[in-house]
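We examine the record.

___
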Amino acid sequence: MDKVELMNKLESMPLFADIPAEQIVDVITALNGTIKRYSKSNYIHSDGENIEGINILLSGRLQIVSEDFYGDKIIIDGLQPGYVFTEHCLGKDGFGSSLSYFVASESEILHLSRSKPILK
């Protein structure tokens, strides 16, 4: 996905609604944004894994999965493009997510890292 295509996708999302279109790429760069492609039937994040940022589903479909005491998997929600996820993990240093994120169809995800603060 090139910068123009990414900008067009992001500028229509509520998260970026107040950011001028020409500055969206600068914001993504400042947040160490990376786009990754995932094939179907893989996990992006697993239960207990420490998550270091937020993610935005650009294309494809994901499922939020929880595992019960007996190891049975329960689908909590299905995610569509434009959905922001893993934001519930921000500020929980050293604590992993209690949810897993499963790729239901080939997907592209924008990862925004919180590892480097913008303001010092």
Observations:
- The helical segments are 3-11, 24-30.
- The mean pLDDT is 83.
